[in-house]
Amino acid sequence: QVQLVETGGRLVQAGGSLRLSCAASGLTLDYYAFGWFRQAPGMEREGVSCISRSVGSTNYADSVKGRFTISRDNAKNTVYLQMNNVNLEDTGVYFCVAKDLRTNRDFWGQGTQVTVSS
Fold it and tell me: In DSSP terms, which residues pair with 80 in a beta bridge?
C-alpha cells in the first residue's frame, strides 16, 4: 500500500526558509515521478514543483522559481521541497503526490501546513 507522509510545515516569517519532506512507503521510487502542490484557504490546489524519475528534470511554478528547490533521495524514499525567501503568498497546505509512471495513477499525501507571517 502506497503511503506518503509530508512533514516540515510550520509557522515561518516572511523571508525565512524551511524544508518540507515527503516520506514514501509501499513503492519503489525509481518508478515514480513526484510533485508538490499547495492549497491556500479558499483557493484551488495549484502545482508548485515536480521532479521526474531522472533527477535532472525538474519544473517549477513561476511564482516559486528561484526560491524553491525540489529534490529526491531514492535511497531514503524521500522527496524534499526546500523553500527559501518565503512570502505571504506561500501560505497554504502543501501536498506531496507520486505518479506511478507505469500506470499513470496518482497517490496523494495528507498535506502539511505552511504559514508565513509578516
Answer: 21, 71
> Cα–Cα distance between 40 and 101 in angstroms, integer?
28
Residue 68: all three cell numbers together:
524553491
What is the percent of the chain with per-residue pLDDT over 70, rounded to a whole number? 97
Please say if the pLDDT value at position 91 is more than 80. yes
